[in-house]
């Protein structure tokens, strides 16, 4: 039930220039804000976090940590059984791809395979978390949320020369294991938290990563669009709510009023200062008094409605609770107060949202299937108690992201097999069949859900397998060559290829992110458009992906390099095939596979030619074995 | 050719809400903003008051380059009544003029921005902001493809490149990436990565593919016939078929001399655009649902300095090819169920710029429709006396999109995609209406 409180009449001037005057004049508009009740707040994600008891009914000898107790109890309720533990090669490959976006180094793999003392998996995972590659991989997930690109978009798509500094800040922050609350606070208010630290100011670029049109005629329109983008992105990323829906009208389903949207936006209004034809880079510290904030009727920048002041969304403040934005005063004080409130235990959403994101990185799907929508139209969590338990655990552990990863990856749940081993006994086979039948998408985690790698990881792994990967970190984005036909869709000189060829072989995270043209292998593999926050990529499987991997110059280069390494000293077909398997798949080929490859080389006719030889590693690099995490 | 094939995508929306009059669309996009007052919308008053400032009765006008107080510029070419219907077209477009009895000229379109990229986005996606799905993406999302070896939505950009707003103009926005426009160019390698780099023969590639598939089959058998894995196996087979089918589509060597002449391919000035118009016909013949052609590089039809010089060049490039396309579609019986759209992102101002040029005008401008049973030889709507604003029966971009969808048998209010907590649609949350009088559809 909502009852109506505020009633305001507003006169709105007609924008100059539009259509015929008689046609467009709309009646003077009004805005009435709904008042939300306890019933509106009763939606699960608005409720305070709970600290659920750890279930005790799961199969005891399977449970390794509390995650398994929750998952196991639910499996038991459904008459399902967990799968066996995956073998060590599978585990380290899975862990390395999840945490670092690369295959494990050979030495790390050997160390893990040979470590027979207890806690070997924990040590293996900790080593991966300590590597810089963990920061590089984690950053991509965050940059998707931050709609990050290094250009403005629109017509001129001008380069933002310092945007890479923010990307590097994010990598470093993950590597340094900055507590999540601090990580968020710095991105919203780093300039206020540590005024003397330039890095903290760079962090606020998060707010301004989105598209912008600096040369637009109407700078008021530009400002309006930019502020709405900041507001929607902050709310979606931190709160997991579709706040942007409320910019034109009250949210249709969630207790988010249009006034809530513009009150949150009011926090950022003083911080955004624009100059025509100049891209924005940082937030500014100015007093809230310098700008008036309004509800913009129907989301139209030319139709200011009632005035608003910075406030926390009303549905998130329990009745009788305090709104820290009300008592904040001084330049930037509201923004700082917002950053602190968003990450405080009083906010029911932030911890749930972030642990769900981390879970999604490891299982493909979050406990809540709609990571960007914890609202009424989003999905209810499959394991609500586990989600709350994890969120509470996370807050109790100083919001330590690496420890959260470690907890998840050392669970029996995550370490399950994704396929039935040949050695399975009849009971295991029965359980497996049941798992496939009754848990077809592995949503209840009666086995590990297999998934396709993301484009950035595919590129890195291909470079790694061929020995070409350049592990240099940081600095301005690099531009590997582009097919001419794509370059020609851009304005002149918008893709100046980086001179040094070594640089073309660096990790995907360092490839220049032009908003108007995603790098081909990333685009074809579903990289988001960097227009709005992306909490979950679509996973498509298409023929153009196959064409790219079969035919592109990049694929050819990688296959050639791999072949070059292999052919030296392996003139014999069987030897070459065996070496290709070991090099690329990191394991010995079984007899059948070896025969396939040797047959292939035989059929190649003039065997021994280079084009034949690179076809073996080339084909392995195209095979499903490389492109999925088992 | 493409991935028509979201082979593993879960999307199942094959939406036909009513009988479709148009099974496919060819959209001729004149990038830069063709001048309605010099092509399809004659304004005697503009000739009469040429040289004088805009009368104050027109009120304030927002313009891109501050031209509101500049003197009015008379139409730069003479208009004549054309065809049986006598609908006037200027001397810039004699060939299209001859087809006027098949065209319905909309004279009252209006958009919301004086800037190129915003208007390019609005015309293509309904929103002035970057990142919404384009009309072609919506159509392929809603109607799917008629040929699984071909993409549903193909874009042939101007070879000069530099569309203002970039590839986002044919992007799929929040729809799955499979539905974005696939760019195709003339020649033997129409699609990026279609053919192997380096010296790999087709038989060698077949062998490579066999090795990949053998490995994948074995891998699949050990993994419970996982759908994603088998989808990826099918994607490789499709890719292999595309390699032979796609070049066949763009190979025009078997077309007759008469056809080449019809499209102006025998003339140096119209060869390039004529070739793309012919490819458009070949594509829709093979079941491509939505083909979009761009005319105009970075500047294109953007006649700021000299309308006569600019439009003379672009009309010469496109006039005969477009007329040829219309005639060819008609003689092959394809025009009955193919909708042809012609238009830019906006029109141009009645005021002059730099003496003989004109600035952008989104407040009132033209586009035309042909085919799909849309009655030709007529106009719909009017601008005011000088062509500044849409005045009679105005058609918003959302209305225009709703009407195009209606012709395709799709209800714009029901073609939706759930995204970020909302059912999104091409025509936005506000009112948009199908203009039945324009389309000849019934409510």
Layout of strands and helices, then pairs:
The complex is a heterodimer of chains A (630) and B (443).
Chain A: E1 3-4, E2 8-10, H1 21-24, E3 29-31, E4 34-35, H2 66-77, H3 88-100, H4 106-114, H5 120-130, H6 132-145, H7 163-175, H8 180-193, H9 198-203, H10 219-239, H11 258-268, E5 293-296, E6 304-308, H12 324-327, H13 333-342, H14 350-363, H15 384-396, H16 401-409, H17 426-438, E7 451-452, H18 455-465, H19 484-487, H20 520-524, H21 543-551, H22 553-567, H23 573-585, H24 591-603, H25 610-622, H26 624-627, E8 628-629
Antiparallel strand pairs in A: 1-4, 2-3, 5-6, 7-8
Helix pairs in contact in A: 3-5, 5-16, 6-7, 8-13, 10-11, 14-15, 14-16, 21-22, 22-23, 22-25, 23-24, 23-25
Chain B: E1 24-30, H1 36-39, H2 44-48, E2 79-82, E3 87-90, H3 94-98, E4 103-110, H4 116-125, H5 135-143, E5 153-156, E6 182-183, H6 202-221, H7 227-250, H8 257-262, H9 271-285, E7 290-295, H10 307-331, E8 338-343, E9 347-348, E10 360-361, E11 365-371, E12 378-380, E13 382-383, E14 390-392, E15 395-396, H11 397-407, E16 416-419, E17 422-425, H12 436-439
Parallel strand pairs in B: 1-7, 1-8, 4-12, 4-15, 5-6, 5-7
Antiparallel strand pairs in B: 2-3, 4-11, 8-11, 9-10, 13-14, 16-17
Helix pairs in contact in B: 6-7, 9-10
Helical fraction of chain A equals 40-55%
Beta percentage of chain B is: 15-25%
The major sheet of chain A is characterized as: 2 strands, antiparallel
From the N-terminal CA to the C-terminal CA of chain B, the straight-line distance is 37 Å
Shape of chain A: globular
Helix and strand string of chain B, N-terminal first?
A: EHHEEHEHHEEHHHHEHEEEEEEEEHEEH
Q: What is the number of strand segments of chain B?
A: 17
Low-confidence stretches of chain A: 1-28
């Amino acid at each position: 039930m909502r009852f109506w409180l505020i009633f305001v009449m507003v006169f709105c001037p007609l924008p100059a220039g539009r259509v015929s005057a008689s046609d467009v004049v709309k009646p003077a508009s009004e805005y009435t804000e709904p008042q939300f009740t306890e019933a509106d707040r009763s939606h699960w994600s608005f409720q305070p976090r709970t600290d659920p008891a750890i279930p005790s009914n799961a199969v005891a000898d399977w449970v390794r940590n509390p995650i398994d107790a929750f998952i196991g109890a639910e499996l038991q309720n459904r008459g399902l059984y967990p799968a066996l533990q995956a073998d060590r090669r599978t585990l380290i490959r899975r862990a390395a791809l999840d945490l670092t976006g690369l295959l494990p180094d050979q030495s790390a793999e050997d160390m893990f395979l040979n470590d027979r003392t207890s806690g070997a998996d924990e040590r293996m995972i900790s080593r991966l978390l300590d590597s810089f590659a963990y920061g590089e991989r984690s950053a991509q997930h965050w940059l998707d949320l931050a709609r990050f690109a290094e250009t403005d978009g629109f017509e001129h798509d001008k380069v933002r020369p310092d945007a890479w500094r923010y990307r590097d800040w994010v990598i470093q922050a993950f590597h340094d294991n900055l507590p999540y609350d601090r990580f968020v606070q710095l991105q919203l208010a780093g300039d206020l938290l540590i005024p003397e630290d330039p890095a903290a100011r760079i962090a606020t670029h998060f707010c301004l990563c989105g598209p912008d049109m600096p040369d637009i005629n109407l700078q008021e329109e530009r400002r309006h669009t930019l502020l709405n983008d900041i507001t929607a992105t902050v709310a979606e990323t931190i709160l997991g709510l579709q706040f942007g829906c409320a910019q034109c009208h009250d949210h249709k389903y969630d207790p988010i009023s249009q006034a809530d949207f513009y009150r949150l936006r009011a926090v950022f209004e003083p911080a955004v200062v624009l100059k025509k034809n100049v891209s924005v880079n940082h937030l500014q510290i100015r007093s809230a008094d310098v700008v008036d904030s309004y509800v913009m009727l129907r989301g139209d920048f030319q139709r200011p409605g009632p005035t608003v002041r910075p406030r926390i969304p009303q549905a998130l403040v329990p009745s009788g609770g305090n709104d820290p934005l009300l008592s904040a005063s001084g330049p930037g004080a509201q923004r700082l107060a917002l950053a602190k409130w968003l990450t405080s235990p009083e906010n029911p959403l932030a911890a749930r949202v972030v642990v769900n994101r981390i879970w999604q990185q490891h299982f493909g799907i979050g406990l809540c299937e709609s990571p960007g929508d914890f609202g009424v139209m989003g999905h209810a969590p499959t394991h609500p108690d586990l989600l709350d338990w994890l969120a509470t655990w996370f807050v109790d552990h100083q919001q330590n992201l690496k420890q959260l990863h470690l907890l998840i990856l050392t669970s029996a749940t995550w370490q399950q097999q994704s396929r039935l081993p040949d050695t399975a006994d009849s009971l295991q086979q029965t359980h497996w069949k049941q798992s496939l039948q009754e848990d077809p998408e592995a949503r209840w985690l009666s086995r590990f859900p297999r998934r396709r790698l993301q484009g950035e990881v595919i590129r890195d792994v291909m470079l790694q397998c061929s020995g070409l990967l350049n592990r240099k970190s940081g600095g301005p984005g690099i531009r590997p060559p582009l097919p001419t036909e794509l370059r020609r869709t851009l304005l002149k000189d918008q893709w100046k290829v980086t001179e040094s060829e070594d640089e073309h072989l660096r990790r995907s995270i360092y490839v220049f992110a032009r908003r108007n043209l995603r790098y081909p292998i990333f685009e074809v593999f579903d990289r988001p458009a960097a227009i709005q926050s992306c909490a979950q990529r679509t996973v498509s499987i298409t023929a153009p992906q196959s064409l790219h991997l079969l035919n592109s110059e990049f694929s050819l280069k990688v296959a050639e390099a791999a072949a070059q390494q292999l052919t030296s000293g392996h003139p014999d077909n069987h030897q070459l095939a065996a070496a290709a398997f070991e090099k690329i798949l990191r394991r010995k080929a079984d007899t059948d596979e070896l025969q396939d490859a040797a047959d292939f080389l035989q059929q190649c006719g003039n065997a021994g030619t280079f084009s034949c030889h690179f076809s073996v590693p080339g084909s392995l690099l195209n095979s499903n074995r490389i492109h999925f995490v088992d | 050719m493409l991935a028509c094939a979201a082979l593993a995508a879960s999307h199942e929306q094959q939406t036909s809400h009513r009988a479709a009059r148009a099974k496919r669309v060819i959209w001729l996009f004149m990038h830069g903003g063709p001048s309605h007052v010099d092509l399809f919308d004659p304004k005697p008053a503009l000739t009469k008051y040429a040289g004088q400032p805009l009368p104050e009765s027109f009120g304030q006008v927002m313009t891109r380059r501050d031209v509101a107080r500049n003197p009015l510029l008379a139409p730069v070419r003479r208009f004549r009544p054309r065809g049986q219907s006598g609908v006037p077209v200027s001397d810039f477009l004699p060939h299209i003029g001859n087809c006027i009895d098949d065209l319905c000229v909309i004279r009252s379109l209006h958009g919301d921005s004086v800037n190129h990229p915003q208007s390019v986005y609005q015309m293509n996606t309904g929103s002035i902001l970057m990142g919404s799905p384009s009309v072609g993406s919506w159509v392929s999302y809603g109607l799917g493809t008629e040929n699984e070896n071909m993409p549903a939505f193909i874009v042939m950009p101007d070879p000069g490149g530099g569309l203002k707003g970039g590839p986002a103009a044919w992007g799929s926005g929040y729809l799955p990436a499979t539905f974005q426009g696939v760019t195709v160019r003339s020649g033997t390698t129409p699609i990026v990565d279609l053919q192997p780099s380096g010296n790999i023969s087709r038989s060698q590639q077949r062998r490579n593919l066999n090795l990949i598939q053998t490995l994948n089959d074995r891998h699949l058998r050990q993994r419970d016939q996982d759908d994603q894995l088998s989808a990826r196996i099918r994607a490789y087979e499709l890719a292999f078929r595309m390699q032979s089918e796609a070049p066949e589509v763009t190979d025009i060597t078997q077309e007759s001399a008469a056809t080449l002449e019809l499209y102006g391919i025998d003339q140096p000035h119209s060869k390039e655009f004529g070739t793309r118009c012919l490819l458009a016909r070949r594509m829709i013949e093979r079941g491509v649902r939505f083909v979009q052609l761009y005319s105009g590089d970075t500047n294109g039809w953007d006649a700021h300095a000299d309308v006569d010089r600019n439009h003379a060049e672009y009309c010469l490039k496109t006039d005969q090819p477009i007329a040829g396309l219309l005639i060819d579609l008609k003689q092959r019986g394809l025009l009955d169920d193919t909708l042809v759209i012609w238009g830019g992102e906006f029109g141009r101002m009645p005021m002059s710029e730099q003496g003989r040029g004109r600035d952008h005008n989104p407040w009132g401008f033209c586009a035309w429709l042909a085919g799909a049973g849309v009655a030709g030889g007529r106009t719909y709507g009017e601008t005011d006396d000088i062509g500044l604003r849409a005045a009679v029966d105005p058609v918003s971009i959302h209305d225009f999109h709703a009407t195009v969808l209606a012709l395709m048998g799709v209800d714009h209010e029901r073609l939706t995609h759930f995204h970020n907590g909302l059912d999104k649609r091409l025509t936005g949350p506000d009112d948009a209406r199908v203009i039945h009088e324009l389309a000849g559809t019934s409510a």
